[in-house]
Amino acid sequence: MSQLHDPLIIAGVEYRSRLLTGTGKYRDLEETRLATEAADAEIVTVAIRRSNIGQDPNEPNLLEVLPPDRYTILPNTAGCYTAEDAVRTCRLARELLDGHDLVKLEVLGDEKTLYPDVTATLEATEILVREGFKVMVYTSDDPILAKRLEEMGCVAVMPLAAPIGSGLGVQNPYNILTIVENANVPILVDAGVGTASDAAVAMELGVDGVLMNTAIAGAKDPVLMASAMKKAVEAGREAYLAGRIPKKRYASASSPIDGTFF
């Protein structure tokens, strides 16, 4: 199956790219633009508390380099540690973006690990879904919690591969596999990817996409790393669709000698 005929579908909208990128931590807006283009991303996530998308008319506006007519802007609640703050941030984003209702919810538990506060995440999810938001939710890699968030009405569930910004790659592949097997909504790995091979591994597990920021923005050459991540996500998806060979302790002969004349 070709990538061109294998779209990512979120909240009823088709996307060609399965790589979602963040917009923070770059040196400037120009580097943000170049890296986003190199990644070939169509969905870009924006930290409302840290990025100017119109709140301050005296500061450079991110939307001038990543225009909403070209990209799907995904406001996120990075930096929120309570359900109340997260809900307030989503409401602000909807106001700033003229009724835009697709949001990325993350409610953090502590500043050291940036692990999600799952209780507050559930609380915020319930409110946002009730208010008509289309919620893509960052969560732990707990299969039970992931299914619960789907049942609550999230349009995508995004378990972490490892702590945010750690670059450790997928630490619990069997948890991710279980989440994917049980899901009826897109599953996207969010947080923990460090390099291209990590992205490929995640995609080979069957997730629908990967969202990353630090792995690209923190690289020595962010634009080149964005290009590498694009290729890795595509290769990982194609490998998953192709179906890998079983792992064995040792190889069997590709041309068996049984029945030959000698």
Write up this protein.
With 262 residues, the chain is of the alpha/beta class. The protein contains eight helices and ten strands. The protein has helices at 29-39, 83-96, 118-130, 143-152, 173-182, 196-204, 214-217, 222-242; strands spanning 8-10, 13-15, 19-22, 43-47, 72-76, 102-105, 134-139, 156-159, 188-190, 209-212. The strands form three sheets. It has a five-stranded parallel sheet with strand order 5-4-3-10-9. A three-stranded parallel sheet has the order 6-7-8. Strands 1-2 form a two-stranded antiparallel ribbon. Strand 1 (8-10) and strand 2 form a beta hairpin. Helix 2 packs parallel to helix 3 (118-130) and helix 6 (196-204) runs parallel beside helix 8 (222-242). The radius of gyration is 20 Å and the shape is globular. The N and C termini lie far apart (43 Å). The model has no long low-confidence stretch (mean pLDDT 93).
Outline of the structure:
It is built from 8 helices and 10 strands.
Which key phrases capture this entry?
alpha/beta, 262 residues, three-stranded parallel beta sheet, 8 helices
Percent of residues in beta strands: 15-25%
The H/E string reads: EEEHEEHEHEHEHEHEHH
- Tell me the overall shape: globular
Distance between the termini: 43 Å
By DSSP, the count of extended strands is: 10
Which spans of ≥5 residues are poorly predicted at pLDDT below 50? Answer: none
Rg from alpha-carbon coordinates: 20 Å
Strand order of the largest sheet: 5-4-3-10-9
The quaternary organization reads as: single chain
Largest sheet: 5 strands, parallel
Helix vs. strand class = alpha/beta
Helix segment tally: 8
Rounded mean pLDDT score: 93
Helix content bin = 25-40%
